[in-house]
């Protein structure tokens, strides 16, 4: 009995090992029959599961594939179920994405439009490479280096990419100019071209100043301060800050701007996240316009830093918010650089207005539903009627002055102004959708450039246009572009068409300083704000 037990003790491990090996051999035979090669892989490596899978594919996949391309597709898929504002920016897109926020880019310093299959220069940036080289508004760019850009199918972005480049790098431009028989060749060194974030600062009346801020970029506080000082020197006693269409940008720029209007020790905004301790942004009392009567204009496209600005003014009872409910973005992103030159904009915190509101709208139903929210609002009548907008009572907050405000889904203005579609006809909509009004405006300026060269303000532009048959010429121009004349539609939309046309002409001559004072007459929200101040 003892000997048998001893033999069993010796033989059992040998038999077990033989069985395991036999099983592996049989398994190998059956797997070969199925067309699958056997393999044993160690998944205990130092990399993540994703690294191991990519390594397997790169080494052993039946066809040659690019692991880099797989990664580019995998990262957005990983982020898909996070919030809508955590996004991956490929290296090829990063420069373009960052330019609006940097406040400058490397280029030649022109604004252009596509006009009759040519690249027509609308405006030359003062002091830029093109002005130094003698390029003028009205010139046509036909060549960029060795690429023909006139009379060919090429997108605006493709043309821009050829004109842009690092500061100090050369670029050759071929120019067609009226009156010249030959193409004019210019070689320029690209310069640092400013990207303005404050579109305009001018006086609406003897006492009311107006500033339009289009984004919160690295230079916005500086531009904003310059605008305020300019208006103060012109006698400003009240101010309207226009943030409509402003989708946000740098938090620090917004807080510095808000600080100009608050007394010391007021909460501007605070942020907090899982890995981000609460950070309070308070006013320091150094603002130069703490007593200036203030209104802020917002709409459904005002988001992020715009909502921080409006929320701080509203929650501190510092001014009135006028317009329509804002977008509803209450999340803070940090941009993290990745080794290949790409970047991840990662949501790291939520921000809260001074009363404690988070105005982030829900994204529980996915990103598509999130970005379709504005369409839902429109179909629900929210752009036209204030009483179609409802907030949850659990999100009710009270300002120090006793005003009721709500969190969740944006900033609700103190004074609601519905969207204005008066004077809109099918004829006008077709003109607008095909860009005919803007194209004719450029054509008009191009034909009268020599006569309009000395016009320096919008009033002189209006005086010049007054004696020109611009509407009659527009109708004929539109007909050649495939828009049939419509006397009834023209009569219905005459005021809108005339004002837009004059504003576009003025913009082509003297930039936004000409555009905004004219287009104001169609701006129901701004006109209402001006009346409220008076």
TrEMBL record:
Name under which the protein is recorded: PDZ domain-containing protein
Keyword Hydrolase assigned: yes
Any single biological process term in GO: signal transduction
UniProt GO MF annotations: endopeptidase activity; serine-type peptidase activity
UniProt keyword annotations, A-Z: Hydrolase, Protease, Serine protease
Family classification: Belongs to the peptidase S41A family.
PDZ domain location: 94-156
GO cellular component, one term: outer membrane-bounded periplasmic space
């Amino acid at each position: 009995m003892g000997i048998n037990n001893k033999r069993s003790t010796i033989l059992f491990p040998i038999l077990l090992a033989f069985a395991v090996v036999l099983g592996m051999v049989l398994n190998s035979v059956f797997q070969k029959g199925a067309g699958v090669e056997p393999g044993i892989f160690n998944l205990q490596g130092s990399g993540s599961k994703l690294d191991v899978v990519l390594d397997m594919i790169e080494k052993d996949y039946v066809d040659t594939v690019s692991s880099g391309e797989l990664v580019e597709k995998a990262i957005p898929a990983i982020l898909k179920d996070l919030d809508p504002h955590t996004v991956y920016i490929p290296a090829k897109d990063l420069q373009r994405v960052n330019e609006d926020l940097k406040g400058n880019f490397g280029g030649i310093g022109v604004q252009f439009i596509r006009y009759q299959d040519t690249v027509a220069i609308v405006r030359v940036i003062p002091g830029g490479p093109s002005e130094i080289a003698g390029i003028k508004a009205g010139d046509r760019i036909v060549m960029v280096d060795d690429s023909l850009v006139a009379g060919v199918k090429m997108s605006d972005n493709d043309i821009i990419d050829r004109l842009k480049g690092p500061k100090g790098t050369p670029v050759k431009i071929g120019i067609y100019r009226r009156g010249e028989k030959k193409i004019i060749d210019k070689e320029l060194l690209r310069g640092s071209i400013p990207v303005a974030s404050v579109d305009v600062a001018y006086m609406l009346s003897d006492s009311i100043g107006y500033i339009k801020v289009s984004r919160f970029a690295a230079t916005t506080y500086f531009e904003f301060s310059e605008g305020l000082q300019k208006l103060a020197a012109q006698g400003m006693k009240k101010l309207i800050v226009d943030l409509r269409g402003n989708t946000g940008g740098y938090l620090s720029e917004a807080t510095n701007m808000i600080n100009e209007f608050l007394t010391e020790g007021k909460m501007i905004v605070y942020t907090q996240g899982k890995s981000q301790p609460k950070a309070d942004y308070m006013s320091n009392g150094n603002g130069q316009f703490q007593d200036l009567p203030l209104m802020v204009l917002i709409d459904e496209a005002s988001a992020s830093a715009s909502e921080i600005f409006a929320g701080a003014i509203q929650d501190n009872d510092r001014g009135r918010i006028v317009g329509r409910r804002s977008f509803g973005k209450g999340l803070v992103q940090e941009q993290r650089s990745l080794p290949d030159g790409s970047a991840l904009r990662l949501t790291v915190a939520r921000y809260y207005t001074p009363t404690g509101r988070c105005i982030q709208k829900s994204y529980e139903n996915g990103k598509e539903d999130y970005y379709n929210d504005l369409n839902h609002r429109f179909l629900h009548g929210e752009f036209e009627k204030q009483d179609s907008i409802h907030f949850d009572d659990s999100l009710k907050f009270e300002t120090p002055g006793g005003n009721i405000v709500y969190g969740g889904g944006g900033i609700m203005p103190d004074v609601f102004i519905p969207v204005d579609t008066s004077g809109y006809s099918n004829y006008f909509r077709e003109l607008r959708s095909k860009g005919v009004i803007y194209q004719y405006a450029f054509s008009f300026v191009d034909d009268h450039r020599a006569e309009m060269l000395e016009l320096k303000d919008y009033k002189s532009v209006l005086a010049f246009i007054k004696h020109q048959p611009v509407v009659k010429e527009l109708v004929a121009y539109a007909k050649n572009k495939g828009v049939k004349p419509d006397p009834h539609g023209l009569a219905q939309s005459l005021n809108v068409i005339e004002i837009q046309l004059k504003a576009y002409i003025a913009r082509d001559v003297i930039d936004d300083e000409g555009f905004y004072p004219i287009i104001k007459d169609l701006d129901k929200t701004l006109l209402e704000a001006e009346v409220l101040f008076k």
